[in-house]
Structures are given as structure tokens and as C-alpha cells.
Amino acid sequence: MNPQGQHAAKPRPQKSALRALGIALPAGLITMSLFMGMEQMIAVDDFSPPAQRVYELKPYLEPLLPETEPRIERKIVRADPIAPPPRLPELIKSLNHPDLSDYGYSGAAPADYGAASLEQIKPATVASMIDRVPTPLTPPMPRYPNSAETRGISGTCDVHFNLTPRGDAYDVRADCTDRVFKSAAEKAVKRVKFAPKIRDGVPITVIGAIYPIEFRIEP
User: Fold this and answer.
1) Distance from first CA to last CA of the chain, Å, rounded?
2) Are strands 194-195 and 135-136 parallel, antiparallel or unpaired?
3) Is the pTM of this model over 0.85?
4) What is the pLDDT of residues 16-28, one digit of tens each?
5) In sequence order, what are the residues at sequence separation of 6 or more whose Cβ sits closer than 8 angstroms to the Cβ of residue 168?
6) Residue 109 CB: number of other CB atoms within 10 A?
7) Among 136, 137, 128, which residue's Cα sits nearest to residue 199?
8) Close Cβ partners of 185 (under 8 Å, ≥ 6 residues apart)
9) Can you list the positions of beta strands (E) in 21-82?
């Protein structure tokens, strides 16, 4: 009983069940009819695949063409014959009786002084005029040692070496004011290509050459 003393209306169970049954029954019939219709549509009992037609394909081979070189017709055109140059007059073989009538010369033939003698002016020995001292094709470019550059050390080196006829230095040894420059000076001279010493036109070996190198820090 509510506060106002009235009774609340409750739905009857029988009407609710009848209403649900009325909805479910048509839905079930429709679903069953759909399933039956689909089963008839997809039935495969009496299905047989159609006969397939088989095609026979012959292999295709490209015909081989005969290897023939293209024939080039060349027409030889003969050049017109070239007229030979005019023949030179014969040289005068004798000075005693030259024939100068064809040249329009007049006068007597030159005197015959005999064969010239060059023995008085000929040198006793023939010496070559080409003499050269060994010269570097490019000056040595020594690398300044890092330890010397850090401490601000300068110095000089006299690099002693021998030189082959091809201009290659060997037996290189450097005498430096400080040993810190020794290795850099020797490597610089070993890398240099020299023009060899030439005597009488022939390159020769040089023993005891000296090349000075200075290490200096520019201010």
C-alpha cells in the first residue's frame, strides 16, 4: 500500500507470455522458410561440370635466317694520272770544264784549290760540353717535428747521402744541431728525386753529397 492508500497495477503473466509467443512464432517460421529456400538454391546433387575443351598448342619456333653478310658494291674510281715532275738538270761533276751555256753564266770556271785541310783547327780530343752537379728536381719538404714545434726549438741539419745515376739518394745520414730534427731531415731527402750528376754527357754515381736543411719557426 502506497502513502496515498492506492493499489499499483501489475501486468498479468498470461498476457506477456502470449505476446512473446505471438512475436517468436512468425519469426521462427520466416527463419525456417529462408533456410529451406537457401538449401534449395545451393543444392548440388544434380550438378555435373561441363565438358572442358582441350586445345592443342604447337610449340612456336622462330625460323633461323641464313647468315649472310650484306654485299656492298664498291665502285673503284680511278684517279687521273699525275704528270711526273720536270727532270732536274744534271749536276756539274767537274769544275775544269763546266757547261754553263744553259744557265746564262759567263766567266771562267772557279779555281781548284784542292781538298781543304782541317787538321790544324781540329781539337785533340772531343769532350762533352754537358757537365752538371746533382740538383733536386723538387726541394725537400721536411715535416717540422711536433715536439720541437711545441717547445719552440729551431735548428739546422747537414744531410749526407750518396746518389745513384738515376737520381735516387741512398745511405742518407743527417747531422743536426738537435736530434729531434734527424729523422725528419733524413726522410725529406729520401723522398726527393735528384737530377744526377753528369760528366762528359754520362750520368755518374755521386759519393758524399751534402744537402743543408734549416728548421726555423717563423715569428
Assistant:
1) 119
2) antiparallel
3) no
4) 777 777 777 888 8
5) 193, 194
6) 13
7) 128
8) 140, 142, 157, 159, 174, 176, 213, 215
9) none
